[in-house]
Design brief:
The chain is an all-alpha fold. 74% of the residues lie in helices and 0% in strands. The protein is built from 15 helices and no strands. Helix 5 crosses helix 11. The two termini are 14 Å apart. The mean pLDDT is 88.
Amino acid sequence: MTLFLNILQSVLPVIVMILLGYVCNKKQIFDDKGLAGLKAIIGNVCLPVVLFNAFYTATYSLTVIPVFIIVYIGFGLAILAGFLVRKWMAPYSRFVPFLVTSAEVGMLGYALFSLIVGPDHLANLAMLDLGQTVFSYTVFITVLRVAEGHKMSGKEVVLNMVTNKACIGMSLGIILGATGVRGLIEQTAVAPIINDLISFITAPTSGVILLVVGYELSLQPGILKPVLKTVFARFVIMASLFGIVSFTVFHIIPFDKNMLLAMLIIYSLPAPFIIPIYANVGDDGEYVSTTLSVETLLTVALFVGIVAYSMI
């Protein structure tokens, strides 16, 4: 009974906030302009600070490099697998490779992981997210634009990264954390003020993100067959990646349960929500949004199991 209550304590807030977001949409408690405002707050304020804090407080060693490479290559293999299986999802095959690779760590992963380990212990997920984020803003977006008939120069790829607020937050966190500046700051009287400020800004992040996720849930029955095929393909690919990555990483570093939990989270997440932002989805819009929604629901279902494992 105690285990059930502990699981419920972590899972119920996720379900309730997603349902509240869904109700806010159906009842039009706030409209698309309000949604855009919430997304702006998340993307421009909360998430950059969350990422800054995760990398600012991380412990750095040479193991960061192989973990980065393994995660990056893994998602690269996943996008190749997507091109191989996309013919089975016709006529909605154009965006399949992008719906079965990468992960929505920023808008969902940190929110879920923080419910398990707490907002001050996100370093393991951050280490994995480094490879995922760089992959997303290099290979993922570049191939997505090429699939649309656009070409991105190396300058544009770099510009996308250096102007993105989340990447800026991540970069500042890495610079201050990896160079030892954080250690110097922690020895001063301003350290508690900085820590309290970061905690204050990041406190509402998980709830607001889940509210937005619920608001954007879209389930269109008419296209569920190709959607379910795509979701199943992603599940198989991500499960395979989890097995390969966890096996490889724990041959490089000692086994760490929090790192394993971070891997479980990152490979259970839906595809990045940026697909409709960087691509003109056109007639495939309902397919893309419904697929992302079903992937999100699957993530919530898998999260229950992840929480249960975290409490063993």
